[in-house]
Fold this protein.
Amino acid sequence: MTTLQNGPTVRPTDTETSTPGQPYRALPGLTETPGRWLHGWQPESAAQWRAGGRQVARVNLAVSVFAEFLGFAVWAIWSIVVPQLPAAGFALTVDQMFWLVSVPSLVGATLRIPYTFAVPRFGGRNWTIVSALLLLVPALGLAWVVNHPQAGFGVLLLVAALAGVGGGNFASSMANISFFYPETEKGKALGLNAAGGNLGTAAVQLAVPLIITAGAGIALDRAGLVFIPFALLAALLAWRLMHNVADAKADARSFAAAIRVRHTWLLSFLYIGTFGSFIGYSGAFPTLLKSQFPEMGLSIAFLGALVGSLARPLGGVLADRMGGGVVTVASFAAMIAGAGGVILGLRAHSFGLFFGAFLWLFVFTGVGNGSIYRMIPAVFSATAADRSPSGLLAAKRTAAGCIGIAGAIGAFGGFLIPRGFALSTTAAGSIVPAIGVFIGAYAVMTAVTWAVYCRRAGALGSGVI
């Protein structure tokens, strides 16, 4: 039995051994009780942080990134499976194929708010175990349904919807990691967590085509079966290495406060344009490649999600130096140019132009993701009426609520963009009208960002947002 400073006697755990360099053995003011619950966790305490708190946070972050990576991969799995379904005996219309691509995003976006509140309710470690095990449901469902073409579109759509649980993982993972880091290091930690998760989309689009075609023929059920050992591993690592923070509380008041602020809705609207575009294009891109340039195959479809994921931290860095408003305006302008290039590539049937323009689009969706995330706390800090320390702290909490709301609303873009492609193809026989609508939306978002957050004569124009 080991007694930690200022706390009761508790049973030693793996992280409380006498091995030098292991995370905490006697962090000031911290105790651990059965179930790996931490009591007295204070990342803002310099003494606790230096004595081993940083190592504890890093271990939790590492496992969280892995679990979120898998969540994004499962969320995106149907993007790479859908183009292969006709070869597996499924007779699907273009509209039905885009429904299968878009419905996981719809479910994932809807789950983000409840997943956020699950962390303080059940514990970050506990919920990571549960959310990792929940990934088995869509994985096993996919493995079964792709071998039953007679099941019907309704069953296929229901199984695809199950993949939405992977989209909820982002919200719970970000909420959990926010409790482990001090304010001075929280931005970097959350950026790594988000980027690691986003890379799951690229990874699944790279790996699954190789997995399902290994050997003779196409074995689509492997696209689901491959996740089973990884989901079990993520749950095991969370159970063995992660912690629950007993002092983490659900801050429903921050959400309620954020709902009443107009900037929450403006920033959420802008986030549809960046993150919504990233997840929407990621979901639709393999199907677009298959339909527009069938001779090229799907082996390069992953590059879009990859460059978009890698560009996200760059957006945050640029926003720190230049201001999030300026970087966001530039991102939307670049996305307009990229969408125009896609149209030119389609009209000329130039794969090089089409593919290059789409990669350009993906890069600036990522840059915009990073810059808007940086804008949110800056906006709420700049607009705080009470400039006292307590007033600024309240603004910071309201900004956290805004981040949760914007993350959920932005994810609905993953549903809207594929549905836009479906409606455009059905009505006009081409995706060009849909891209034209997207260009118009980006133009409006550019104007809103400039008018509210960059214009010198505006209320926020005198600062760097």
Observations:
- Confidence is low (pLDDT under 50) at residues 1-24.
- Residues 385 and 391 are 8 Å apart (CA to CA).
